[in-house]
Amino acid sequence: MISVADLLKNDRVPGNYFAPATYVRGDLELGILENRRGDRLLALPETLIRSIYTGLEKETGQATRLVLFNCGRWWGKNFYSRFCEEVSEYYDTPVSEMEMVLFLQCLRECWVAHGLGKLDLDQSFQHRGFLVVTISHSPFVAQVKDSQRPACFLEAGVLSSFFTQLSGRELHCVQTSCESLGASTNHFILGLETRLAAVEELLEEGLDHDSILARLCP
Amino acid sequence: MNLEFESIFDRAEGRYLKAEELNTLTLYVESLPERLDAYKRLRDHEIEVLQSVADQIQVDLPNASIEDLERAIKNLLVVLRYCAMAMLLNDEVFLRERLLGWLEEVNRAFNLRPINEALYGLLSQGLKQELSPPQFALLCPYVTLAQASLVGSA
């Protein structure tokens, strides 16, 4: 027997915590942008993003990728703990007991609510040890000019750190297609670093995402 | 706020509302007592309506897992609450943007479509019995919208 009354926790059924209309709030007079819990949000003008990318490229050249990737790792680490805190509080369930579908759906919504683009996951390669993530309309890569290779290093860092903490295993992340190179979306492959080593070489050879994936999972 | 009202108020910046704009507002205000009554009725009889839906669905779909049924009924609860609020506000965007997009993904991931198909039929019957015809007419478009998005989408 299903009891409807028992399905209600404190007479409340949670909806979409990250619905932008309720998640993002602001006070124009105070110049404050915050989320529904009152945590401060930061709006980044495109000029700043562009300047960071251009400045880094000028100052550090080749190392830009690594700098951005590591910044992303750091960001991802904090992002993961904030995310878990908010989600478990709202859904009144510890993240460890939350259904993965709900957890990932929250991540998608959270990504959109923060204006970071549209994130999606393809778990069909999970049994081979890989997770494929796509991010469309990345606000970061939109500012990248004249890139020769995939340029979402920041996001790759965030994803690697986020899923490392989620899975409890050290996961690396490599981007295999990029909007800055004319692709319709940005593809990322996550997996153990040793297993992803080949991807860098395949990218150098000029292989596209599908071909790289086919080589990884023959 | 309802987008239509919002645009009426925006357009009227610095002038008085035109007759047809006032008419739109008047229609809404006049419908408000009925909306409030329907809302209160839903609030007070939610458990009964959904409990009979829950009892019947277990008879209609004896092979569905309890876990899936509970999940779908829980989603139905939240849908009904959002529909009630959307009806009160006369605002389908409220329902669509705050809930349906999100639920569509959850439904797809758990493959709840066949259960939802049966659930929404039962819910409609239950609501028809619980609400007066004008109240049902006010709520119906929102339930239909939810149904289209959660049953209609593969």
Question: Can you walk me through this structure?
Answer:
The complex is a heterodimer of chains A (218) and B (154). Chain A has eight helices and six strands. Chain A has helices at residues 4-7, 20-23, 46-60, 64-91, 100-113, 153-167, 193-204, 209-216; strands at residues 24-27, 32-35, 118-122, 131-136, 172-177, 186-191. In chain A, the strands form two sheets. Chain A has a four-stranded antiparallel sheet, with helices on both faces. In chain A, helix 4 crosses helix 6 (153-167). Chain A is globular, with a radius of gyration of 19 Å. Chain A starts with a helix and ends with a helix. The mean pLDDT of chain A is 92. By secondary structure, chain B is mainly alpha-helical. Chain B has six helices and no strands. Chain B has helices at residues 3-11, 19-60, 66-89, 92-110, 113-130, 133-150. The radius of gyration of chain B is 18 Å and the shape is elongated. The two termini of chain B are 30 Å apart. Classes of the chains: A alpha+beta (218), B mainly alpha (154). Chain A binds chain B through residues 1-5, 7-8, 13-16, 19-22, 101-102, 105, 108-109, and chain B through 47, 50-51, 54-55, 58, 66, 69-70, 73-74, 77-78, 81-82, 97-99, 101-103, 105-106, 109-110.
Describe the structure concisely.
The complex is a heterodimer of chains A (218) and B (154). Chain A has 218 residues and is of the alpha+beta class.
